[in-house]
Amino acid sequence: MNIINAKFSPTILGEDYIIRTKLLSDMKKNKNVIFITGPAGYGKTTLLAQYHKAVDENVMWYHLDRYDDEIGTFITYFTKGISRFLEKRDVNIPGISDELLIEVEIKSLVAEMLNYLTINCKEKLTIILDDFHYISNTQILEMVNTFLKYMPSNICFILASRTKPNLDSDYLITNDRFLEINIDSLKFTNEEEQEYIDAVKSTYKVCSIGKDTIRKNNGWPFGLNLLQHAVRENLVGDYEINDLYKKCFDNIYELSDDKEFLISTCMLDVLDIEACNFIAIRNNTNEILNRLSNKGLFISKTHNGVYKYHDLFKDYLINKVDDKKTIYAKIADYYISKKNYIEAIDYLLLSEAYKKVEAILKRDSYKYISITYYSKVYNWDKKISKKQVNKYGGLSLIKAIIALKDLDVDGGTHYILNARELFVKNNDKDGQLKADIIWVKALRMQQKFSEAYELATTIYDKLVDRDLDEKIDIMTEKLHSGAFLCKVQEEYKSLKKEVKGIDEKNIKNHEVQALALLEYASYLIGEYKTAMEIQSKYRNRISPLNSILYTIRIYVVWGQLEEGKEQIQYEIENAKKFRLSSNLPELYAILAEIEFHRGRYSLAEKYFKEAIDLFEDNKNNLFHLCVFTYIHFLVFIGRKEEGLELIVKSYNNIPKESYWGYMMADMMLSQTYLLLGNYTKAISYSEKAMIPSEEFGTKLYIATLSAVLATSYLALGYEEKAFIYAKRSMALSERGNYIQDFITNYEFYKPLYDFCLLKNINKEFIDQIVDRSSKNDPSYHELEKPKLYVQFFGDNIVKSVGKLIRWRTSKAKNIFYYLVYNGKTGVTKDKLIDTFFENYDLDKAQGNLRTTLTYIRKALLEVGFKDIIWTANGRYFINDKNIMTDLSIFEDIITKINSNHDSSTVLCQELCKVYRGSFCEDIDLYDFTLERERYSNIFEKAILNTISYLDIKGSYKEAIVFINILLKHKKFHEEYYQMKEQLYKKLGDSAMVKKTQEESLLTELI
After folding, report:
1. What angle do CA 818, 821, 827 make, to 5 degrees?
2. For residue 32, is pLDDT > 60?
3. DSSP state of 390
């Protein structure tokens, strides 16, 4: 047989193409069998060409066509191709002679080939079969099946096909060395499309390409090729580009057997089976959608049973529809039959059936404000003309809520008045009431809170005996306007009555809205248990970000920091993933607060700064809360001057009318001045913040401010006043479980706790604070004499019985750590000067060293440690009798692990508690950099050995726990993700296998 050598030539990449980074990464992850399936124009061959260019190995590329669908031809080319790329062109691989093809079974031929390859092919070999959809011969399929099943591990086999290969892939799916790349994977991301367009613009010196065309391309690779062709041929006008698409679509449409179905369903946003059957008047929609989807070019499945037309193809089909109004009306009838009035109104507006829209709006009770939760409503604006607004009051109110949503209060007011006039003219009392409800919203937006609340109360009283769904809009406005008038307590009681009769087993949307309002009111007044109860029961129904943030903030107040951190990190990832940048400032502010409470001070500062930088509106109340919490943090860790400087700079920037802003700032400043020991100012700011807090009914603030007042009055000797505020603070705190602030600020509130225990004030709650404060703090070790606890791993902090050592300068802290670490040998003066003052002249360096050592002595004296630094033989030493370190605990545990393998799991759990982060991660010293790597390796080795032990033992879940710990320390470690994936496979948890793969990909992309 004559061989066509061109069939072995790899496809050459053109000038402009998108590098498929993610797909190439997936293909290179130790995969042996890869199926790439997708219709013509989806970039399969281009992906193969990129892979060929990227891999440093032998590649046998075999271009298939219809003539290859014959066993003799296929095996001849297959074996010749392999021998060519093994550079053994004159050697025939066994099994290709005509005689053997006739006499020997296919499996025997494959066995000989595989045996030959096992002996003669030691290096990596990739076999690519392009256009495999031409193959239907059962002998060839049997041969490929057998080859795939038994081929050596150094061979990678890639099939590219327009249809799914008719191969026995069941055994492959369970093999982690198998990868399937389908239509969805082949589609370009928005970033990849933009990258391609930018490259085309640069190559052909074109300034612009229609943005709408790019947006509607939906990641379709062939669509981008058409765009490139248009640019190359200088057909860059929208008309010319669309004409290219039309010619392409014409060919497909004319060959289709489903023209009638395509036309009748093209105006649907999504193609669910029931809707298509209703509109197209047929019962075989499922069969048609599956058939179109398998062809794959212009329709794709979005989720189970629901499909979507490609946007460009949808536009093409809509242009072919003669009577659009009839189809829109038919779709509206379907949604009315399903009682989905939002969708129905959308299509009725398109069909210009305004009278029907008005009838639905009139029937659908008092829900104008509620429908603003549906984003589709904002598309109605352009569908409602001025003529219709002046004719129908309901349509005028729709325009009003859209205007108010866009913060156009004047426009909203105009439409409300217009609607009211129409309702009065038609003697429509219900319509007038609906207009008044939206008028409340307009008043609130103009900050006329008293008028808004008064009108809302009047309307609510008129509707009080109506069903809940008729009251939900006015209840919403009543709560939001009341919040600015300190009326939340009343609204909380009212909402509790309204939700009392809700059937939890058959809950409706308007009832979920009512519960969401109650959750919000509960959060505002500090009834956190009620808020959390609602959140836990209806988490899947009440899902706005604010609701999630309430939950996380409650976790923080309750001291459930790990749960809070896990949720906030998830929300940050989502915000980045979906580009919700406006959510990030508050999310980072909460994360900073969590890390502050966890004692991870360097992380806390990082997130505080990130949050402050991300806030675009410096008048935002949350911005002020973040800034003053950061000030409190700075003072807490000993950077008093910075904190005081920031107070002066920030306090005057709060707008005078910002009632909330001042309340939050004053509350935080009361705690800050308590830390500074300025009790007069602490009392002053507490009393100032207490007035709005009591008016508003914010129990958390009242409890916190009362604690500050009680502690300050105690310090100043006013026990009677202290007693009153202590009782109030602890009663509220115990009832609401407001515990975390008391734990974090333990050393400053300790006189208050001692006083409460003496006076028998909420003794159980105080015991709980003391217990939780000491439980996770190693500086509370029960010893005859207090010791300094020095933390080398993670944040470098020094404590004594819960009291944090606050260093005057970072140099003082660094020298202290250096002396502790070199405790046995001591450090010479020259070494200290060379290490810490190398750029100073000798006299100045010696002076700075003396000053710094004085700072160290003073800082330690403040917590009761005298003569901690001593000198001998020209060396400086730290008195280690007064010191405990996590480093010594770490080394003791490692010694035990090495000598007692049976207890390694328990010991490693202890090790993980000690190894909170890198060795001296806050201190930038060359000597410590080397040690940082050494201790990291020791920790990693101990954990990996334990994981291996648990794997052999079959304790896969325990092993995964340790892998997750490693990933916290080394997030971008691909090998750990692979280990985790394997363990989930052994557990048979396919959902977690997929999630782990996604996590790995995400970290890789980051």
Report:
1. 60
2. yes
3. T
Longest dimension (CA), the chain: 110
Q: Which residues pair with 885 in a beta bridge?
A: 790
Asked whether 885 and 875 are in contact (CB, 8 A), the reply is no
> What tens digit of pLDDT does each residue of 818-842 get?
999 998 899 999 999 999 998 889 9
Whether the Cβ atoms of residue 298 and residue 216 lie closer than 8 Å to each other: no
Residues 583-601: tens digit of each pLDDT: 899 999 999 999 999 988 9
Q: What SS3 class is residue 800?
A: strand
Task: Work out the number of other CB atoms within 10 angstroms of the CB of residue 537.
Answer: 13
Task: Encode pLDDT of 321-370 as tens digits.
Answer: 888 999 999 999 998 898 888 888 888 888 888 899 888 887 755 455 55
Q: Output the CA–CA distances (angstroms, integers) from residue 502 to 467, 495, 505, 515, 938, in the order listed.
A: 12, 12, 9, 10, 58
With 0-12 CB in 10 A as exposed, 13-18 as middle and 19+ as buried, what is 815? Answer: buried
Q: What are the chain's domains?
A: 5-185 (3.40.50.300), 544-616 (1.25.40), 788-885 (1.10.10.10), 887-1005 (1.25.40.10)
pLDDT digits (tens, 9 = 90+) for 449-503: 899 999 999 999 999 998 888 898 899 999 989 887 888 999 999 999 999 888 8
106: which 2 tokens?
Answer: 């296919």
- HSE at residue 809, side-chain half, CA atoms within 13 A, is 13
> For the whole model, what pTM was predicted?
0.60
Closest to 725 in 3D by CA, of 767, 771, 679, 769: 679
Across 434-441, average pLDDT: 92
Do the Cβ atoms of 13 and 50 come closer than 8 Å?
yes
Q: What backbone phi and psi angles, to 5 degrees, belong to 274?
A: -65, -45
By CB atoms closer than 10 A (0-12, 13-18, 19+), residue 776 is: exposed
- Residue 697 identity (one-letter amino acid): G
Place of tokens 């290709």: 96
User: 416, 438 in Cβ contact below 8 A?
Assistant: yes
CA dist., res. 533 & res. 535, Å (int): 5
**What's the pLDDT score for residue 150?**
83
Residue 635 burial class via C-beta count within 10 angstroms: exposed 0-12, middle 13-18, buried 19 and up: buried
Show the tokens assigned to 881: 């009798």
